[in-house]
Amino acid sequence: MKKKHIATSGGVRAVALVLAALVLSGDVAAHGTSFNYKDALTKSIMFLEAQRSGKLPHNNRIKWRGDSGMEDGKLAHVDLTGGYYDAGDNVKYGLPLAFTVTTLAWAALAFKPELQKTGELKNVHAAIKWGTDYFLKCATKKNHMWVQVGDPNLDHQCWVRPENMNTPRTLYQIDDKTPGTEIAAETAAALAAASLVFRNEKAYSRRLVNKAKLLYQFGKSHLKTYDGECPFYCSYSGYNDELLWAATWLYMATKRQVYADFISHEAISSSVAEFSWDLKYPGAQVLLAELNMTASGGLQSFKTQADNFVCAVLPDTPFHQVFITPGGMIHLRDGANSQYVTGTAFLFVVYADWLHRAGEKVMCGDTPIKPERLREFAKQQMDYLLGANPMGRSYVVGFGVNPPTQPHHRGASTPVLKPGTVVNCGMSFGDWFAPDRPNPNELTGAIMGGPDGADKFIDKRNASACTEPCTYINSLAIGPLAALAGRGPKLVASH
């Protein structure tokens, strides 16, 4: 049953404005802003389940979802069922899907005790396996991988839930003639990271890491950006970050010197202010800082570059670069901006944990930053999405005060139809996209793309930059939410 949504009153807005002032002053953590983080964590995982394609399991928790994409791959006489729809449409894109799985696996590794404590570890493992099982189907041949299912242009011309779609399930691939280093390397990273998650399932773990090795080698020996997912997922950052990212996860999974040599002598690394499906440098740098590895024969310190990421983001450092909204939220660009919020929170908590264990600090020039400051900022970012913001509302569907009711999402906004129902694509937008009313199906746990740079959010289906959820926004939220739920608001690990 759908929960009643509470309208934001003037009093709540006034409290929210005070919270915003506290956010900017850095006093939110001290004032004890807190939410039901366990509930937020559970619901964030449920959103990923709502994005599943293929034959749904018997324990499917999203009752308005059914089997879909059951003939994916048929055009090439292969089985490509499974995987995830990336956002509010019905396309399976390889690059963001792989990043979703990599970051889910990292969360399962870095926050295992917290996920166990909250009872969510099995659900996170299931979410990872839903992706890795699909990747194994996509990469059965050497130097070949199926990287996308569905023609995005035709898909976007029909507002229909995946269970009733009749748009072409066009297949896209990378191979010797049409390489795609980013997708091959990111998928290798996902499989290598997942092999660590499932290391107790020895046969499955070995299968994952062996496939990761082949995909990494394919991407490294056929250097080229694949533009087949443009203009929806273009790799603006190039492929060097994915190669470093993949080599890092493969080194962690195998401890083989060949990956250490690549990281130390061949890999290109750079200090940046963004961690996303397109730009992986800070993720690799945080991992490598702990491994005490350097690049270019020892000339580049990954610890220094990880520090530079922190210094570019935190508003109270001399090297601050990232825009912070008046309400205190990171804002890099419109359109799924929440991914930078959850991504930064994820990296800050993971990095703070290592800094604490190692007795280290972040150095921004001559200014030291303690791990506690990273944890405080990470909590502030997650709290903003959960309701501690000038609008005084939650950005998570089905959670908190006045949550969104119109996420830009076909399955949620379309009523459940009988299997085989033929949808008139020309009428679909008028019937289900255009009406200004709550979605008939609650997309529980979906984190919206977020407000604009002035903290303004309009809960309208047609405002896709604000209201479209994405799998990688949620996958990056799992870690910090698990830490908040399992450790408490100060995010201090007990393990």
From TrEMBL:
InterPro entries: 6-hairpin_glycosidase_sf (IPR008928), 6hp_glycosidase-like_sf (IPR012341), Glyco_hydro_9 (IPR001701), Glyco_hydro_9_His_AS (IPR018221). The active site is at residue 408. It is an enzyme of class 3 (hydrolase). Its EC number is 3.2.1.4. It catalyses: Endohydrolysis of (1->4)-beta-D-glucosidic linkages in cellulose, lichenin and cereal beta-D-glucans. One of its GO terms (molecular function) is cellulase activity. GO terms for biological process: cellulose catabolic process. Coiled coil: none annotated. Residues 1-30 form the signal peptide. SUPFAM superfamilies: Six-hairpin glycosidases. Keywords: Carbohydrate metabolism, Cellulose degradation, Glycosidase, Hydrolase, Polysaccharide degradation, Signal. Belongs to the glycosyl hydrolase 9 (cellulase E) family. This is Endoglucanase.
